[in-house]
Amino acid sequence: MLGIQGFEVFVRKQTKNRVGRSSRMAWVAKLPWWLCFAAAAGGWYYAQSLVGDRPQVAIRSLSDIQPAAAVMAPWAAAYIGQYVVPGFFGLAGVASFLRRWTDRRLVRKVMRNPKNLARGMDWREFEKLVAEAFRRQGYSVTMTEAGADGGVDVVLRRGGKKAYCQCKQYKTSKVGVAVVRELYGVMASEGVDEGFVVTCGTFTEAAKDFAHGLNITLVDYYDLCDWFGVDPY
Description:
- By secondary structure, the chain is α/β, with parallel strands linked by helices.
- Helix content is 59%, strand content 12%.
- It starts with a helix and ends in a 5-residue tail after the last helix.
- The longest helix is centred in the middle third of the chain and has 48 residues, at 65-112.
């Protein structure tokens, strides 16, 4: 009975409100797609083990309603959960698969023609491409919310260390020292170990001078091409 009651609490939390469901869905969709589908299958089997036979209750008067509801509620939660939980994780798995497919499509686009770094995608796609590049280097990658700049576009973790990355898709001008200084300020205030500024263009000399001696790596167009193993020309 405790297992069913715990499952009932979980189902209630998952169905509390649309905003909550959307935010949880977005968070779960960041997991590998295969893990989401495994959780969907596991949730279905677990719920099946809790459902069992429907409790038999008899309501002969108004006083019987509350005890009957107490008996039926856990069973009803498990019965609904056998569809809600797999559906939730299944949809998250589909979203995760599509996200990974989109990221890899961007990589193929660049490998066909590296000039697409500047002219063949928008700023958000550029951030996704950079995130995929770090993912291929063994980093755990978390992208910040679209439009929420604040000096950080991608949060990276590897080997117990945390790094911040700022992406700049400057198609004509060079990335100046202000961008590097902004990232360094955020790193210093939050105690972050390492920083990256990635652009599809180049950096000014002032930006390079400021980053020199700091734990900030400047990645320009030629570095990106090297990461993806393509000829920059």
